[in-house]
């Protein structure tokens, strides 16, 4: 009985913690979803503008031109700082591992960039090298965090591979689709993939260049001061904003996953408490039955002695 009471007390304490974490995640995920939703229109418009410039000019800009025989590829992995979020971080890291294996199969050297303590601890525990780490903000990222990451990635992309640069950059993040579905997603960030026709991308971005009805003529573009200078201005903004959008989507996914995981843990704790209460009742009833049996046995023994 004492052991069961101790276990019930311990599980009750854990249940209170998981219930509190579920409520906190439920309150924060609403704001995270709103931030991710509000950032999407600007990201779509900016990406469309960059695609329009790149499509309507013959300018060979470093950020839009594919490198022949690419040798090094950078992979930005976005995971969580904290656990207790189900398979959120594991799914992102697993998807990144699949991408890295694919790139290595193409003969490319992979340079990982890590966001979140879970990704950092995964690589450090396995003694794997990575270029840089960022942590401490995965559940509430700011634009300054995205700018720090984007500036480092852009710097390495523009740097020659002989000096430690990379020829292409991929981002692995968790795409928020709904409260019950969050999917690991891979985005090739650089060089920019230009989309010429109307299309709805898997990550929800409409990268259409031609936004005109059938029968209308698409306008001709004239850039001032030059297409190269326009791209120089737009592309850094594009990189920062895409990373910021990926961080916001990952943040909403992390909180949604944590809410589900904590709800499941709370429900399991309730079931475990009921099980321990049944076992405790059975133990109490067995003790009472044993005492009654001992009393009856003692009374029978006294009656036989008097005879």
UniProtKB/TrEMBL annotation:
Gene Ontology terms, MF aspect: ATP binding; proton-transporting ATP synthase activity, rotational mechanism
Entry annotated with the keyword Transport: yes
Major site of localization recorded for this protein: membrane
UniProt keyword RNA-binding present: no
Superkingdom per UniProt: Bacteria
Pfam families on file: ATP-synt
UniProt keyword terms in alphabetical order: ATP synthesis, Cell membrane, CF(1), Hydrogen ion transport, Ion transport, Membrane, Transport
Membrane topology type: Peripheral membrane protein
GO cellular component terms given for this protein: plasma membrane; proton-transporting ATP synthase complex
Subcellular location: Cell membrane; Membrane
UniProt GO BP: proton motive force-driven plasma membrane ATP synthesis
Sequence similarity: Belongs to the ATPase gamma chain family.
Assembly and interaction partners: F-type ATPases have 2 components, CF(1) - the catalytic core - and CF(0) - the membrane proton channel. CF(1) has five subunits: alpha(3), beta(3), gamma(1), delta(1), epsilon(1). CF(0) has three main subunits: a, b and c.
Protein role: Produces ATP from ADP in the presence of a proton gradient across the membrane. The gamma chain is believed to be important in regulating ATPase activity and the flow of protons through the CF(0) complex.
NCBIfam families in the record: ATPsyn_F1gamma, PRK05621.1-2
Protein name: ATP synthase gamma chain
Organism lineage: Bacteria, Bacillati, Actinomycetota, Actinomycetes, Micrococcales
Underlying gene: atpG
């Amino acid at each position: 009985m004492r052991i069961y009471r101790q276990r019930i007390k311990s599980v009750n304490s854990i249940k209170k913690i998981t219930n509190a974490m579920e409520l906190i995640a439920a309150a924060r995920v609403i704001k995270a979803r709103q931030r991710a939703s509000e950032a999407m229109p600007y990201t779509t418009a900016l990406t469309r503008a960059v695609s329009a410039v790149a499509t309507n000019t013959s300018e060979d800009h470093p950020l839009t031109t594919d490198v022949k025989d690419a040798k090094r590829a950078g992979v930005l992995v976005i995971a969580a700082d904290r656990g207790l979020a189900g398979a959120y971080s594991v799914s992102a890291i697993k998807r990144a591992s699949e991408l890295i294996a694919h790139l290595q199969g193409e003969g490319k050297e992979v340079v990982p960039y890590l966001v979140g303590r879970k990704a950092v601890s995964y690589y450090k525990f396995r003694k794997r090298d990575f270029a840089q780490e960022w942590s401490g903000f995965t559940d509430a990222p700011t634009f300054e965090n995205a700018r720090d990451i984007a500036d480092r990635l852009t710097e390495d992309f523009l740097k020659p591979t002989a000096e430690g640069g990379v020829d292409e950059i991929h981002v692995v993040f968790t795409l928020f689709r709904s409260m019950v579905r969050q999917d690991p997603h891979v985005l090739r960030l650089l060089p920019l993939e230009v989309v010429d026709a109307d299309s709805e991308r898997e990550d929800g971005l409409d990268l259409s260049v031609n936004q005109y009805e059938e029968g209308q003529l698409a306008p001709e573009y004239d850039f001032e001061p030059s297409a190269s200078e326009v791209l120089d201005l737009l592309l850094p903004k594009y990189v920062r904003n895409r990373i910021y959008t990926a961080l916001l989507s990952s943040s909403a996914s992390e909180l949604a996953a944590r809410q589900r995981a904590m709800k499941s843990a709370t429900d399991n704790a309730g079931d475990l408490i009921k099980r321990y209460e049944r076992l405790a009742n059975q133990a109490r009833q067995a003790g009472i039955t044993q005492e009654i049996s001992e009393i009856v046995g003692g009374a029978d023994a006294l009656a036989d002695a008097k005879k």
